[in-house]
């Protein structure tokens, strides 16, 4: 493959940074954002809190035991989505090809740029522009592939810039803990540690056959990653990318309750699909076709979410606004666009966790028995 120049850009403790923009007195203090009830979970925490051993996805209770002086705040996805979009717009203006890999992370393919500017200089300037226009701290890593750039950015956070020269990738990741490799989670890390493998350079020495025996097809990927190999491409981000469902009624209908229930069950199916793919939507659309075949749509930008309840509310509200003609409806459609990766936000701001557990149980049943296994009582 031709030499590539791939950038990973990652906002530093994104939610915390947005809160500090709005309230500068939070600067320098340990801050926890997430569910504020006794069963809540930490969605994001400041570096001051991390020093006490707090990390995201930790129960709020545990976090407060480790760091009792921390300030706890409920998150505001509306605000975070606004900043996420602002930064996406800045990157879109400058970068030839970029991927929005989550609400606060981006990959850029700037191959060929070095002939004109020098890739590192170009990326530094883009970083400064993002900081100027958003006021938010951001770090980046630059290398020949996504894997090494992401690890590089992680190593220099917060407020850091990392460049790994071509040919130096293996050497760069060799001394790191295997936990630093994207895709190696808690379980894999534990298992590797048990095998006596803690450093990336040790992982390299394990025969691929042995890794395949222990980790299945994931085994070869582990070996590739340990060798800094990652041919994956930057997938261009488009807000048009979407998932949708439509339903044509066998008889045109005026029964609004019936139509509303159809909307709810389509939203349930699509939201399930989002969660399966670990994605959230930022743009929802409703579509109505009347008996005379005239078709109308209405869309709305919303805070990123994969939560059924939130999505149902938005779609029913759109339907209410769009259904103005009081005529027979022939078809109804629902579309989720502006998809981004990341579903953890789904649960983290929820106070009770009960809704989340219910959703997880429903997803579990759907996974086992298929999407037909669960329906809202009202849509039966
Ligand atoms: Mg981040």
From TrEMBL:
Sites annotated Substrate discrimination: 15
Entry keyword annotation includes Secreted: no
Cofactor: Mg(2+)
Alphabetical list of Pfam families matching this protein: IMS, IMS_C, IMS_HHH_1
Cofactor: binding comment: Binds 2 magnesium ions per subunit.
Catalyzed reaction equations: DNA(n) + a 2'-deoxyribonucleoside 5'-triphosphate = DNA(n+1) + diphosphate
Membrane recorded as keyword: no
Documented EC number(s): 2.7.7.7
UniProt-annotated location(s): Cytoplasm
Domain spans labelled UmuC: 6-185
GO biological-process terms attached to the record: DNA repair; DNA-templated DNA replication; error-prone translesion synthesis; SOS response
Major localisation: cytoplasm
Gene Ontology CC terms, in alphabetical order: cytosol
Enzymatic class: transferase
Residues that coordinate or bind Mg(2+): 10, 104
One GO molecular-function entry: magnesium ion binding
Active site (catalytic residues): 105
UniProt entry keywords in alphabetical sequence: Cytoplasm, DNA damage, DNA repair, DNA replication, DNA-binding, DNA-directed DNA polymerase, Magnesium, Metal-binding, Mutator protein, Nucleotidyltransferase, Transferase
Membership in a protein family: Belongs to the DNA polymerase type-Y family.
Oligomeric form and interacting partners: Monomer.
Main function: Poorly processive, error-prone DNA polymerase involved in untargeted mutagenesis. Copies undamaged DNA at stalled replication forks, which arise in vivo from mismatched or misaligned primer ends. These misaligned primers can be extended by PolIV. Exhibits no 3'-5' exonuclease (proofreading) activity. May be involved in translesional synthesis, in conjunction with the beta clamp from PolIII.
The protein's name in its UniProt record: DNA polymerase IV
Organism the protein comes from: Membranihabitans marinus
Lineage summary: Bacteria, Pseudomonadati, Bacteroidota, Saprospiria, Saprospirales
């Amino acid at each position: 493959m031709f030499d590539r120049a791939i950038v990973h850009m990652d906002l530093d403790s994104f939610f915390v940074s947005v809160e500090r923009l709005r309230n500068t007195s939070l600067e320098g203090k340990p801050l926890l954002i997430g569910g504020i009830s006794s069963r809540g979970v930490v969605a994001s925490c400041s570096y001051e809190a991390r020093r006490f051993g707090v990390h995201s996805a930790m129960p709020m209770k545990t976090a407060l035991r480790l760091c009792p002086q921390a300030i706890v705040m409920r998150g505001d996805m509306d605000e975070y989505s606004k900043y996420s979009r602002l930064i996406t717009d800045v990157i879109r203006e400058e970068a030839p090809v970029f991927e929005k890999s989550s609400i606060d992370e981006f990959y850029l393919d700037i191959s060929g740029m070095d002939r004109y500017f020098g890739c590192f200089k170009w990326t530094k300037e883009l970083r400064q522009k993002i900081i100027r226009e958003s006021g938010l701290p951001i770090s980046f890593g630059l290398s020949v592939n996504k894997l090494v750039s992401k690890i590089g950015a992680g190593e220099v956070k917060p407020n850091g810039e990392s460049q790994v020269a071509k040919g130096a990738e293996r050497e760069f990741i060799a001394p790191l803990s295997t936990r630093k490799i994207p895709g190696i989670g808690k379980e894999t890390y534990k298992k590797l540690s048990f095998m006596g493998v803690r450093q990336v350079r040790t992982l390299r020495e394990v025969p691929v056959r042995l890794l395949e025996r222990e980790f299945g097809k994931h085994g070869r990927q582990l070996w590739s990653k340990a060798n800094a190999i990652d041919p994956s491409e930057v997938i261009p981000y488009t807000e048009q990318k979407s998932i949708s469902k439509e339903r044509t009624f066998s008889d045109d209908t005026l029964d609004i309750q019936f139509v509303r229930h159809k909307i709810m069950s389509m939203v349930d199916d699509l939201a399930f699909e989002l969660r399966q793919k670990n994605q959230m939507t930022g743009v929802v659309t409703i579509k109505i076709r009347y008996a005379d075949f005239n078709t109308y749509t209405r869309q709305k930008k919303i805070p990123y979410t994969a939560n059924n309840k939130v999505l149902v509310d938005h779609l029913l509200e759109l339907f209410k606004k769009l259904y103005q003609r009081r005529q027979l409806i022939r078809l109804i459609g629902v579309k989720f666009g502006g998809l981004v990766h990341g579903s953890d936000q789904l649960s983290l701001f929820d106070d009770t966790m009960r809704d989340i557990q219910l959703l997880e149980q429903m997803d579990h049943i759907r996974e086992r028995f298929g999407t037909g296994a669960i329906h809202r009582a009202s849509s039966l």
